[in-house]
Specification:
Helix content: under 10%
Distance between the termini: 83 Å
Strand content: over 45%
Number of strands: 49
Structural class: mainly beta
Length: 575
């Protein structure tokens, strides 16, 4: 079985290129270089010193073409971008398809631009490119009319097309006119895909150690000599594609595996497939996921659980005969033994730590098996019991429902919050006071740290007047096992009125001075309810109460107080 590669991935595999210059000399560049003839652009010759290349005159610019070998139209150039001033604004980088007159395309790294030059002078920007950090390796690749500028160190790249130039050689441009410390180092160049004008394949990836039979697990490294190649691999015998897993570091082979790989790179022909079969004849073999299981801090009488995985890594089944555990407060809560695991099969144990006292605790798991790499595997256990810190906080100390009409309900919310570092258990919530109730809610309930519970409280008065109550919450909170919240509200009576109106007599030999209104209650005798003669043809009776039946008649009155016969009677019943 192939173990996942460990992060972070190692640096890219290095390779040797046909054109290499480390600028290890001093003074003029080697005979492989030709300085541009574009003197009208202010170019001076480039010189080398202590592994870097810079203009021979401080504060000037230089452009040199690598002419030591013949390059095809498809090529790349790369170099290390040496530390530079934050002032910026230079034009330092690598070039391709450049001729001695200074015509070609350059990756001006400090600007982050791909630039076209004609006779050494900038003509137009083709596209944006990655801006490297000091010390990054930059590369400019051209295949056909496609240019790719890349920060090889970070992997960032940008591609674009331009058909202006079709021939020339790799080159370097160093401009110190805006800063005196721009320089390049470690130049490399090559034809892409080949100097012969044809196409060269990606080199077949190689394996180290070589395929074979081994008596112990092997750490396998995969290499490709193709520059900037990406390697994809599989371990199930199928041929990998660019959708397969990307190789980023050594692989560990525990049993019999066949690793297949492909390599890809921009500008190269179809990928070559590599394959290596490894046979690990350790049989049987057992591994554990960790040799040290730490539970950290756990509150007293609170359980914490962790997993321990046992895996068969040999070429034949391994039998786990027994698993024992020592140490107060440590237990195995899941796992049955003996058990036989086929190659690559696993079993997971659930290990629990439930401290009964404060302070450090330690223990050990002993795993007995027929593994040829050791019949006994030990796993150290550790944890610390801490004092319980269960705390409960209520959102308010009192709840006021305000004025509520008799026989109608109003609702308020009360929030309970676990504010400690260990769970808190709310055992009960009891409420007292006429008209006050809890809507829903089931107890006991345990709240984990930061968890909340919202209670809905209702006030439904049956009588008018101020009413009070209390809700009492019982818990195991270390800040107080009982929390009381005062409740209050006022019941208000329903106010009724009976509006009466009538028509004045259309003809009367005795002029009407006003009217008297009579009311009977629940079928009783009619009683005069207006204290003085009503001169209007309407009357409002506000001395009425709910649940009562009232009957009304009206009599006309002349100036001497003589009443007419009664009007028709109307009856109303108030809800």
């Amino acid at each position: 079985m192939i173990a996942p590669p460990p992060p972070p991935p190692p640096p890219p595999v290095t390779a040797t290129y046909p054109a290499v210059d480390t600028f290890s000399g001093s003074g003029a560049l080697s005979s492989n270089w030709t300085n541009t003839t574009s003197s009208d652009q202010g170019y001076v010759s480039l010189t080398q010193s202590a592994g870097t290349v810079a203009p021979s005159v401080l504060g000037q610019q230089g452009l040199a073409i690598y002419s030591g070998i013949s390059f095809s139209n498809d090529q790349y150039a790369q170099a290390t971008f040496v530390t530079h001033s934050s002032a910026g604004g230079g034009s330092t980088g690598v070039c391709v398809r450049m001729n001695a007159a200074g015509s070609g395309v350059c990756y001006l790294a400090d600007w982050g631009l791909l630039y076209s030059l004609a006779n050494g002078a900038g003509t137009y920007a083709i596209s944006g490119c990655p801006v490297p950090a000091s010390g990054d390796t930059i590369q400019l690749l051209v295949v056909g009319t496609t240019y790719t500028c890349a920060d090889v160190t970070t992997g960032a790249s940008t591609s674009t097309t331009d058909a202006t130039y079709a021939s020339g050689s790799p080159a370097i441009l160093v401009d110190q006119r805006r800063s005196t410390v721009y320089a390049l180092a470690q130049f490399q160049a090559d034809c892409s895909p080949s100097c012969g004008g044809g196409s060269s394949p990606v080199s077949t990836p190689t394996f180290s150690p070589a395929a074979g039979t081994y008596s112990s697990p092997q750490t396998v490294t995969i290499n490709s000599t193709t520059p900037s190649a990406t390697i994809y691999y599989t371990t199930d015998g199928t041929t990998p594609t660019t959708s397969s897993t990307v190789y980023s570091g050594p692989l560990t082979v525990f049993s019999t595996e066949t690793i297949k790989v492909i390599g890809t790179a921009a500008g190269y022909t179809s990928s070559a497939v590599g394959s290596a079969a490894y046979a690990i004849v350790v049989s049987p073999q057992l591994t554990v996921s960790t040799t040290n299981l730490s539970f950290g801090s756990v509150a007293v009488n609170t359980a914490a659980t962790q997993s321990l995985t046992i895996t068969s890594k040999g070429a034949s089944p391994v039998t786990v005969n027994s698993v024992s555990i020592t140490g107060a407060d440590f237990t195995i809560v899941a796992g049955t033994f003996p058990v036989t695991l086929t190659p690559n099969q696993s079993v997971t144990l659930q290990v629990q730590f439930k401290p009964t006292t404060t302070g450090s605790a330690s223990g050990q798991i002993t795993i007995s098996s027929n593994s040829t790499t050791g019949g006994t595997a030990l796993v150290a256990l550790g944890g610390t019991g801490t004092a319980a810190n269960s705390q409960l906080t209520v959102s308010v100390a009192s709840l006021n429902f305000g004025n509520v009409t008799v026989n109608t309900a109003a609702t308020r919310s009360l929030t309970l919050t676990s504010t400690g570092t260990t769970p808190v258990t709310v055992n009960s919530a009891a409420i007292t006071g006429a008209g006050f109730t809890i809507i829903g809610g089931s107890f006991p309930i345990t709240l984990n740290p930061t968890q909340t519970l919202t209670l809905q409280l209702q006030f439904e008065p049956t009588t008018a007047g101020a009413l009070t109550g209390q809700i009492t919450i019982s818990s195991n909170s270390t800040s107080g096992s009982t929390a009381a919240v005062a409740l209050n509200g006022t019941g208000t009576a329903i106010v009724h009125e009976v509006d009466l109106s009538w028509d004045a007599p259309t003809s009367s030999p005795d002029p009407v001075a006003g009217y008297n209104v009579y009311r009977s209650t629940n079928g009783g005798d009619a009683q005069l309810i207006n204290s003085s003669v009503d001169t209007q043809t309407a009357y409002v009776d506000s001395a009425v109460v709910s649940g009562t039946t009232y009957s009304y008649i009206v009599k006309s009155v002349d100036k001497d107080g003589v009443e007419s016969v009664p009007s028709n009677q109307i009856t109303v019943t108030l809800p």
